[in-house]
Design brief:
8-stranded parallel barrel; two-stranded antiparallel sheet; single chain; globular; alpha/beta; 12 helices; binds ligand PBG
Length: 352
């Protein structure tokens, strides 16, 4: 009796078709030994199915009104940048070949109101940052965040009345916010607010303002996640927040609903869709990419970054390897690009 017999019996029927419909060419051990192709670096390189390059990376940047930089303790290595430091910081990223950045503002408490007027002030911090960056980096992809939370004294992404997050009243403000950002030079607005109908409303507002070429990156499947904690420290929106965001952000239990959200956003004119957070939601990312075949981005959010940095600082994980592995996992799951605070660090690793 050959020792391999039980193994052979448990292998799939040779006549069976693979999922792609091609004849099953898998064969069996001992003729087939997958380890052969892993035996040398050159075969591993030739047979690698996915690659990570700087072209896959988008860097989120925090801007502040105050000059200079302020470290964000819960995001080691990440700071908020004053307008005076922005060009240097972003220049370092473009020098590394990073194609795009996403701008998020830190607002002082006195600029926040329940009506969020500062969100659509054409001279607000975001617009000023965008004008500086557009001027300094004409070819850089500039993504601006469309949501009210940094400007809202109540901390929510939408207007709040009697404890309720208002949908349609919020849309009006989001549209004005998107238009001032686009007029300042943003070429991609990213609604991250999860109000119903916002992509269509923003598309019409942009078109009516003669801004047809401005893209919309829809945060389509954005979950009500505990992984956003360090981001709320960075933009100063956590303190004011009462309650959670579960009446507008998605339930982490849900998968099919993400397809519905992405479908709606695409019908309303989204150019790219996003799944967020990242690593815990790779199944959703794969679903969305397979269902629609459109540019699909992932966001490796602040809490994911903070976890890796904390473990690396303790010597529990290898910083460089864990960054590269997680970002490659996004690619394997179907991401066309990933927003990550580690973008410059990773671009440097890839280069070196
Ligand atoms: C808010 C917004 C959040 C993030 C991006 N835009 C936080 C939230 O919804 O509370 C999180 C990003 C991160 O955690 O890195 N509009």
């Amino acid at each position: 009796m050959s020792k391999t017999k039980p193994v052979l019996r448990s292998l799939p029927d040779r006549q069976r078709k693979t999922r792609a419909g091609a004849p099953d060419a898998l064969g069996s051990f001992p003729q087939v030994r997958p380890r052969r192709n892993r035996g040398d670096a050159w075969t591993r390189r030739l047979t690698a199915e996915n690659h990570l390059t700087a072209d896959d990376l988008i860097l989120p940047i925090f801007v502040q009104g105050q000059s200079g930089t302020t470290d964000v303790p819960s995001l080691p290595g990440i700071a908020r940048h004053g307008l005076d430091c922005l060009v240097d910081e972003v220049g370092a990223a473009t020098d590394l070949g990073i194609p795009a950045i996403a701008v998020f503002p830190f607002m002082e408490e006195e600029r926040k109101t329940p009506d969020c007027e500062e969100a659509y002030n054409p001279n607000n911090l975001v617009c000023r940052a965008v004008r500086i960056l557009r001027d300094a980096f004409p070819d850089l992809g500039l993504i601006t965040d469309v949501a009210l939370d940094p400007f809202n004294s109540l901390g929510h992404d939408g207007l709040v009345r009697d404890g309720k997050i208002l949908n349609d009243e919020t849309l009006d403000i989001l549209c004005r916010q998107a238009v001032v950002q686009a007029e300042a030079g943003s070429d991609t607005v990213g609604p991250s607010d999860m109000m119903d109908g916002r992509v269509g409303a923003i598309r019409s507002a942009l078109d009516n303002a003669d801004l047809q070429d401005v893209r919309i990156l829809a945060y389509s499947a954005k979950y009500a996640s505990a992984f956003y904690g360090p981001f709320r420290d960075a933009v100063g929106s956590g303190g004011a927040l009462t309650g959670d965001k579960s009446t507008y952000q998605m339930d982490p239990a849900n998968r099919s609903e993400a397809l519905r959200e992405a479908a709606l956003d695409l019908q309303e004119g989204a150019d790219m869709v996003m799944v967020k957070p990242g690593l815990p939601y790779l199944d959703v990312l794969r679903d969305v990419k397979e269902a629609f075949g459109v540019p699909t981005l992932a966001y490796q959010v602040s809490g994911e970054y903070a976890m890796m940095k904390a473990a690396a600082a303790n010597g529990w994980l290898d910083n460089d390897k864990i960054l590269l592995e997680t970002l490659l996992a996004f690619k394997r799951a179907g991401a066309d690009a990933v927003l990550t605070y580690a973008a410059p660090e990773v671009a440097r690793l890839i280069k070196g």
